[in-house]
Design goal:
Layout: E1 2-11, E2 14-20, E3 25-29, H1 36-48, E4 67-76, E5 79-88, E6 91-96, E7 99-100, E8 113-116, H2 122-125, H3 128-142, H4 144-168, H5 175-214, E9 221-226, H6 237-250, H7 252-258, E10 269-274, E11 277-278, H8 279-282, H9 285-307, E12 312-316, H10 324-334, E13 340-344, H11 349-354, E14 359-364, E15 367-370
Parallel strand pairs: 3-13, 3-14, 8-12, 12-13
Antiparallel strand pairs: 1-2, 1-4, 4-5, 5-6, 6-7, 9-10, 10-11, 14-15
Helix pairs in contact: 3-4, 4-5, 4-7, 5-6, 5-9
GO molecular function: ATP binding; single-stranded DNA binding
InterPro entries: DNA-binding_RecF, DNA-binding_RecF_CS, P-loop_NTPase, RecF/RecN/SMC_N, RecF_2
Family: Belongs to the RecF family.
């Protein structure tokens, strides 16, 4: 899978841009605050219908305009597909092959992307919500069923939380409706937990191999999915659902008192361990970075295994955060395999040696120009 072309209209600081992209490594070269990350954000949004930097779609629209549009052509083994995403004050519209989609969930998965930025170190050392978001965004791209279950779960969770608040303030007295919402929430929650466990097991296998290689086989990386469901009940969706239902019954008084749902995948976490020690708490900065890099590279392989296509990789100023050894491993792993976009203010000597025949774009003040010099050596 690769993105053949990209067009922007009134997106962030770009009034217009039309790019023909390379199938290999694309380097976005320019000073800070010129629009390099905005280009990656546009590709990310084209894939997932949302930004990775803001929850407010209005932020994506150029201040001089009322709408913003991102479009492109995705090439897969099955053929070429035009995609289009439009943001406006009224919402957003997504098109596949020029046909508007009734639901955004029908659109996600046409273009798969993996983003790796300095803040992705938070996958290891950040709050649980960061790791839950990581699982939901990546697994949702790979598995339409996961995305559907997640959407249903979030809707039910919002309804159940509101009903708990109504009960808390005596605006409602019907516990039968609470039972109905609880049963539905447990069913979707059980599917999400089961799918997470399956996909995390596969991701762990890839990450272990990569981590061992980067650490020269001195370290072993393992994953642990932290949930309130007993380990003995994590066999299949039915046993997980039964366990969740029992937990909801046990916590009912506490949930009614607090007015919120205390059990479920929205409260779970993912922990990384290196040599059986929690790398978040006890790992060095080097171990944390190696873990984050291993997980990201493992995502590439898992997505290929799950979808049959390699994703597009977005590296936002991440090379400056990695030492020479980790840079070498990253660039060697993706060369000739994954379409990659790298933002950087300059290219170091080691990067020059490792990137073969890159497509160079010079970015300045919301303008992006392809390097037509014919020189494959990255300019600075």
């Amino acid at each position: 899978m690769y993105l053949q072309e990209l067009q922007l209209q009134n997106f962030r600081n770009y009034t217009a841009a039309d790019l023909r992209l390379g199938q290999g490594i694309n380097v976005l070269l320019g000073e800070n605050a010129q629009g390099k990350t905005n280009l990656l954000e546009a590709i990310y949004a084209l894939a997932l219908t949302r930004s990775h930097r803001t929850a407010n779609d209005h932020d994506l629209i150029n201040w001089q305009a009322k709408t913003a549009r991102v479009s492109g052509r995705v090439v897969k083994a099955s053929g070429t597909t035009p995609l289009e995403l439009t943001f406006s004050r009224q919402g957003k519209r997504a098109k596949i092959n020029h046909l508007e989609q009734a639901r955004l969930s029908q659109y996600v998965g046409q273009l798969n992307v993996i983003l790796f930025a300095p803040e992705d170190l938070a996958i290891v050392k950040g709050a649980p919500t960061v790791r839950r978001r990581f699982m939901d965004m990546e697994f949702g791209q790979m598995n339409p069923r996961y995305l559907y279950n997640l959407s249903q779960y979030r809707t039910l969770l919002k309804q159940r939380n509101q009903y708990l608040k109504d009960l808390q303030h005596h605006r409602q007295h019907d516990l039968l409706l609470l039972d109905v919402l609880t049963d539905q929430l447990a069913a979707y929650g059980a599917d999400i937990i089961h799918q997470r466990l399956v996909l995390l097991h596969r991701l762990e296998q890839w990450a272990q191999s990569i981590h061992a290689e980067i650490s020269q086989h001195r370290e072993t990386l393992t994953f642990h999915y932290a949930t309130q469901v007993a380990e003995s009940a994590l066999g299949d969706p039915k046993t997980i659902c039964d366990a969740l239902t029992a937990l909801y019954q046990k916590q009912r008084d506490k949930e009614l008192y607090q007015g919120t749902t205390l059990i479920g995948p929205h409260r779970d976490d993912l922990r990384f361990q290196v040599n059986d020690k929690n790398v978040q708490t006890f790992g060095s900065q080097g171990q944390q970075r190696t873990t984050a890099l291993s997980v990201k590279l493992a995502e590439i392989e898992l997505m290929k295994a799950e979808t049959g296509e390699y994703p597009v990789l977005l590296l936002d100023d991440v090379l400056s955060e990695l030492d020479d050894a980790r840079q070498t491993h990253l660039l060697t792993a993706i060369q000739d395999k994954v379409q990659t976009f790298i933002t950087t203010t300059s290219l170091s000597g080691i990067t020059r040696q490792l990137i073969k025949d890159p497509t160079i774009f010079h970015v300045s003040a919301g303008s992006v120009v392809a390097d037509e010099s014919g020189d494959s050596t990255p300019a600075e």
